[in-house]
Amino acid sequence: MSEELDTGFFADWLRAAAAAIDREAAHLTELDSPIGDADHGSNLQRGFTAAQAALEKEPQDTPGALLLFTGRQLISTVGGASGPLYGTLLRRTGKALGDAAAVPLPELTTALREAADAVAQLGGAAPGDATMLDALYPALDALDAGSAPGDAFPAAARAAAEGAEATVPLQARKGRASYLGERSVGHEDPGAASTALLFQALATAYGEGA
Amino acid sequence: MSEELDTGFFADWLRAAAAAIDREAAHLTELDSPIGDADHGSNLQRGFTAAQAALEKEPQDTPGALLLFTGRQLISTVGGASGPLYGTLLRRTGKALGDAAAVPLPELTTALREAADAVAQLGGAAPGDATMLDALYPALDALDAGSAPGDAFPAAARAAAEGAEATVPLQARKGRASYLGERSVGHEDPGAASTALLFQALATAYGEGA
Amino acid sequence: MKMLINVPEKVVPDALRGMAVAHPELSVDVENRVVVRRDAPVAGKVGLVSGGGTGHEPLHAGFVGPGMLDAACPGEIFTSPVPDQMVRAAAAADSGEGVLFVVKNYTGDVLNFDMAAELAEDEGITVGKVLLQDDVAVTDSLFTAGRRGTGATLFVEKVAGALAAEGAPLEQVESVARRVAENSRSFGVALSAVTTPAKGGPTFDLPAGELELGIGIHGEPGRERRPMMTSGEIAEFAVEAVLEDLGRTGPVLALVNGMGATPLVELYGFCAEVHRVLGERQVPVARTLVGNYVTSLDMAGASLTLCRADEETLRLWDAPVRTPGLRWGA
Amino acid sequence: MKMLINVPEKVVPDALRGMAVAHPELSVDVENRVVVRRDAPVAGKVGLVSGGGTGHEPLHAGFVGPGMLDAACPGEIFTSPVPDQMVRAAAAADSGEGVLFVVKNYTGDVLNFDMAAELAEDEGITVGKVLLQDDVAVTDSLFTAGRRGTGATLFVEKVAGALAAEGAPLEQVESVARRVAENSRSFGVALSAVTTPAKGGPTFDLPAGELELGIGIHGEPGRERRPMMTSGEIAEFAVEAVLEDLGRTGPVLALVNGMGATPLVELYGFCAEVHRVLGERQVPVARTLVGNYVTSLDMAGASLTLCRADEETLRLWDAPVRTPGLRWGA
Ligand SMILES: Nc1ncnc2c1ncn2[C@@H]1O[C@H](COP(=O)(O)OP(=O)(O)O)[C@@H](O)[C@H]1O
Ligand SMILES: Nc1ncnc2c1ncn2[C@@H]1O[C@H](COP(=O)(O)OP(=O)(O)O)[C@@H](O)[C@H]1O
Ligand SMILES: [Mg+2]
Ligand SMILES: [Mg+2]
Ligand SMILES: [Mg+2]
Ligand SMILES: [Mg+2]
Asked: Complex ipTM, two decimals?
């Protein structure tokens, strides 16, 4: 448990996340078409790009401040359902991390879980409703099970991706897809897919930094 | 020149014309699509159907009255450019025939030519402008050249059809097609096509009556 | 074909039944296809009558009411109405002061209105006429049916309608209508073809990535097909085409008109570009109207109409109007 | 993709620039995406604020003006605006009498408006809220995000706006807004999918000869796909769906609303059928509004909204309103 994750690592993560969202924006919007309103990719792209630009101007110097700041940026620029939800996820994680200069993995996992619960509460959704939560919670379980970032992050990325895939047979019960009733079955939830990207970016940022 | 065309024959002609228009309405509208406003077939169909219905209720007892009445019906029910033009064609033909109980071919030809000139004047068009006139005048020339209905009507039908076909390479100078300028080249004029149908119906009605 | 209709043959009467129930202030004769303001004829007032093919709504029936038209007669889809309708409309609108026919320059409309004018005069109605031919896309007018009447029709109906409402005599109403018509020019573009009920499919093929420049309002193709342009480029093209023909001008009325299927958000964006281009050419815009006013069924696209805005035109434009399609001050 | 735009990312600011030049009576902050009536805050008056994704025009920005909204904040295409915009709009609208947020029930709108309400309260602004959830197509509300807000938004904005204009306090304005919301139900059908600028193609495939029943206003498919129906059949289906949920009712306000690309002539025909079916069910229609008011970009189709018309609702509905999208009596 000696290894700690510093501000630089979190900045790398957010950069990798922004790059992944940028690359996959069209795909995310595509996922949001048959069961939603075809904007998820462009929503997150706008938000993560704006957050990166804001960070250029106002670099943050602790992991907590960095995540809090980024979460606020998302809230102010994304809109839609995903803006407040992802914004809250990052804000609450940042808040929980306090002003430590670096954080060990278990502390990050605890902070993320607290934030995930806040997201679940805000949106009134539960795992199995075919939302981002279906990628988020499995990823957190994988982080819990991991011993160090080097294996926990890739495991979380895999778990998130599997969780996203597992939304395909589900009937959506929250968000726009729920309007479709049974017709939402057979489609991957776009928010779960973007959550998988965020955890993939976590693994990538760590792998490249290592 | 002993053979005369009586009211029954003209009624047959108008019935055959209505039937032909009915059958070819979609095709005429199709011709009016690329260079017009896609209504020529339904315009004439509405008018000829209405005229037939009106004739059921108010049968006319001379060729002149019959054509005059039908022309008035067309004016009152077709609208567009073709309504006043075809209405005038029939009205003026009927007027020229006066109240004779039957008319010989040359008299009919003269009446039609007088009416065609009235149409040309009304619309301000001349042969070569890619309008109905390009089928009408060749048909009249064929009637002129014919010696009896039995050969003159089929010849007029052929001439009208050829005249209609000959509008394909022309640039339209009247009617909606003229708005297209050079882009009107390469299309058969819908009004010329419907005029060909009318002369085809003339031949058919005579052939069947014979 | 996918349309919100019963059968193609009933589109016009069905719509008139709808107008009748939605607008009790109008008197709608579904059978004879005439829409009249309920209080017509208005004593001492010149009657304004217009009409044309259906498919351009709210033009014309949607512009019947105080301050604009007294009566309108809708023809079949894209088909001029017949003289019988026009005579009926004229009779309903005439208070004894005469009526003005507002006619868009299409062969069918001109021929039918001319016949109607003759018949109406026979019935003792004095008839004036103004011909709309504002579409600059139709060039070489000598070799065509002449320029089409499009967006300027709205300007003429509004301005002449306001003057008629003030009680001006036919001669004056006709003269202001002529002036507005002469002072107006339009240019339109299409991003898609039209599907008419009668045909059931698009009137022409317009491939993805291309647009038609210089279209009319009847689903006919334009003068030219080009690779898709941005809203800014289209505004430059349209303003250029209009101003080249209109010549040097002071303040203008601008109509940024949707053809029917282009979302309002795009029309407003186009409006911004039109204003930018006019600004660059030092043409002040006195009034701007944005929306679907002179349409072409489900065509995507837009047209621009500019009208020289002299003082009287502006005053009459601003006067109250109360119709289903255009309403202010009342 | 064929749209009358510059680039997808600029659709919203371009449209706002257009609104700014077309409507000098509005104050349009393009940068911060807030549209405010120029004379706001109006002393002694409760402020009405709404907003939502762009693509539903004239809703909401087109309903800013005397007798309706004080401010609106447009989000990206089909995307709820962000709290910053809402707080700015609230601040502009608040004369000290508080503001009412008119919110359509979508997860994004609800979450963002809730955040904004908290922030605005922090700034000392009293905030009330009314939630629109009129779309009866969304059933099993327990297992969904709940019913969508659609056409009834127009009724609420108009009626609550009229009461606010009379100087009623926030509590009363909120209560009439709630009543109108509760008294309203909607049902929509689509004849085509939507093309959003971001996606550039249709959001779903709708084969020729089929329609979607129970659609919303964001290009999402409906609850059910069926072979194409006639306008009369669709009217029966929609009226049935609405009345089944609304229950027995006396006179109603009716909105026969186009989704964007359906020609007005078809909407009027549909309106006739809606009136016919309501008549058969002994439901009198007190007022009818026909047109494209709560749209879904270039979607073809229509929706029906009915609202129980009690006396106060009718009086406030008839009160003067002066906005780009809805105007009478002023
Ligand atoms: N109530 C909710 N709880 C959790 N996640 C939600 C909820 N509603 C929506 N989401 C997530 O948000 C995603 C949609 O985001 P986005 O398309 O950006 O917003 P919108 O639905 O407003 O258009 C969904 O795929 C889903 O994962
Ligand atoms: N000025 C004219 N002179 C002679 N024929 C004309 C003239 N204008 C149009 N036409 C004929 O009318 C036909 C179109 O008729 P139709 O489609 O029914 O009317 P519209 O053009 O009003 O839609 C053209 O194909 C042409 O033959
Ligand atoms: Mg979405
Ligand atoms: Mg035609
Ligand atoms: Mg026509
Ligand atoms: Mg959205």
From this structure: 0.95
